[in-house]
Amino acid sequence: MYRTHTCGQLRIENVGQKVTLAGWVQRSRKLGGMTFIDLRDRYGITQLVVDEGNTDLMATASSLGREFVIQIVGTVVERQSKNSKMPTGDIEIALETINILNKAQTPPFTIEDESDGGEDIRAKYRYLDLRRNPLKNALQLRHRLAHEVRNFLDGEGFLEIETPYLIKSTPEGARDFVVPSRMNPGQFYALPQSPQTFKQLLMVAGYDRYFQIVRCFRDEDLRADRQPEFTQIDCEMSFVERDDVLDVFERMMRTLFKNALGVDIPAKLQRMSWYDAMDFYGSDKPDVRFEMKIADITSLAHGHEFSVFDSAEYIGAIAAKGCSEYTRKQIDELTEWVKRPQIGAKGLVYIKCNSDGTFKSSIDKFFTPEDLAKIAEKVGADKGDLILALCGPKRKTQGQLGTLRLEMGNRLGLRDPFNFAPLWIVDFPLFEWSEEDNRFYAMHHPFTSPKPEHLDWYYSNKKEDLERVCANAYDFVLNGTELGGGSIRIHDAEVQKRMFEILGFSAEDADYKFGFIINAFKFGAPPHGGLAFGFDRVCALFGGQETIRDYIAFPKNNQGRDVMIDSPSYIDDVQMDELALKSTAPRQ
Predict the structure, then answer these.
(1) What is the pLDDT of residues 345-354, one digit of tens each?
(2) Beta-carbon count within 10 A of 70 CB
């Protein structure tokens, strides 16, 4: 055997034992007549020591470079200078032999917790970056969470069932990744954006509790919490209503928090309607770790001969606690911040609620102190607070205020990543109207059912009625991030037919794109619903991070490239011919 113990295993009780270890050289240093070597594997670090009296062994030790792979034999001894910061810090190994298993070039960055390598170079040498503790800990957390998920769902009677990766393209939602078929020239598979239709077919088949931790694929613009290939905890249940689904997955998340982090979350989570989330937080994934709710001050702000407000459909405001001392320079900087293209506000109005009870604002010319006091009361501002107001179209302005609210939360230190505030968002609109296309789109997907009490509106031909229909859907939100979402599905053929009509599918289009599931429903589809959690996001937030990359062994960059293996790449002409493909893009 290459080793009798790992590099994180030995303790003071092992003193006197002869052991064999194997791993990578973290660092080597000479102190007086001794050479000390830190040997690392994924379990930890053990210090090795060589006495200068052993000239042959000293020569071998002196030849070791960083990241050399070695095997050693030695005796565990008690360290004279103990290191309480290391689990193995009470002992060291007095070496007898060193066997160099593999030499290593000097790595392009230091393999330390705080590396000197930039993001690009570490991505290129990802296999080296994965040796660092932050990434090792991230992947260990991912493993623990996956283990807890499987244990919990198995205990709830769920079966883990795999579904295909090569499927049919159903163009709703994000763009599909497509795969050409050699055996069927000119035809293409699509990689699944989710196993949605297959898990519904499993309900038709009678497998009333299904799950899988599954890879999904979406060809969309990337960001910190989005990758072209990602992992879902995908679940579906039969003979359930909304509350049944929410109960199971509330308990699952409570189990994950408790067993993986030792954190207790409330036994019953808050449920907030989509409309309240937008009105008070400007987001359908609100961060409720702090208040600073948005207040509608439209009625108070209109009619004061301030044209910017008088011409606006909506005026909203937030109160930043303790910020009345903000300087003009700071407020100007905030104004420029909200005017950035990513936010798109035209300007920012401020009202300082001074500690002496007076007000100072950018609209003093138009509003009396009494007017400002009424606004302060509406917003919930106290002495010492700073009111920030935006105006414009209602939903757009609420979104801008929501972004400003998060920024102020960051500046005031209100968004501690280890302060967890989960909740459910419910009662989403079923449809969203596109002015550009003059048609409705499904806010989630075309198999989401309307709330039963809204069926009269659902069958109406009036646009305003259809806009009032709520989906029987729900999202699990944590600290301003949507971690999971799902719905009670349509299982009735007539309700599904009506959905396709509203979305503008002809009977022929619906049959071509979704005929397999429509036909399956004719053979007895049970009432069913489900939910999918973004597993990468769960891992990242449990680890206190916003980016998911460190929780994926081999992620892509923001351009969708794997710079380590240089993918995507061109294929040769022979493969192109086999697949009946012809590219119009010039090779670079």
Answers:
(1) 999 999 999 9
(2) 22
How distant, in Å, are the alpha carbons of 144, 153, 446 from that of 139?
Answer: 9, 21, 35
Phi and psi at 394, nearest 5°, equal: -55, -60
Q: Which residues of 340-354 are buried (b: 16+ CB within 10 A; e: fewer)?
A: eeeeebeebbbbbbe
DSSP line for 456-472: HHHT---HHHHTTPBBS
pTM here is 0.92
Angle at 369 between CA 364 and CA 373, to 5 degrees: 115
- Tokens 């030695």 belong to residue: 74
> How far, CA to CA in Å, does 228 sit from each of 30, 53, 137, 425, 557?
48, 57, 23, 25, 10
* 448 closest CA partner among 476, 425, 465, 429: 429
Identity at 450, one-letter amino acid code: P
Find residue 489's DSSP bridge partners.
448
Amino acid at 220: E
Burial class (CB in 10 A: 0-12, 13-18, 19+), 182: exposed
Residue 152: its H or E element: helix 133-155
Peptide bond before residue 164 is cis, with ω within 30 degrees of 0: no
Tell me the two tokens of residue 356.
């002496």
Q: Is the per-residue pLDDT at 171 higher than 70?
A: no
pLDDT tens-digit series, residues 48-57: 999 888 889 9
What residues does 24 pair with on adjacent strands?
Answer: 40, 69
Taking a C-beta distance cutoff of 8 angstroms, is the pair 443, 428 a contact? yes
Helix (H) or strand (E) holding 130: none
Q: What amino acid is encoded at 95 in this protein? A: L
Q: Work out the burial of residue 375: count CB atoms within 10 Å of its CB; fewer than 13 is exposed, 13-18 middle, 19 or more buried.
A: buried
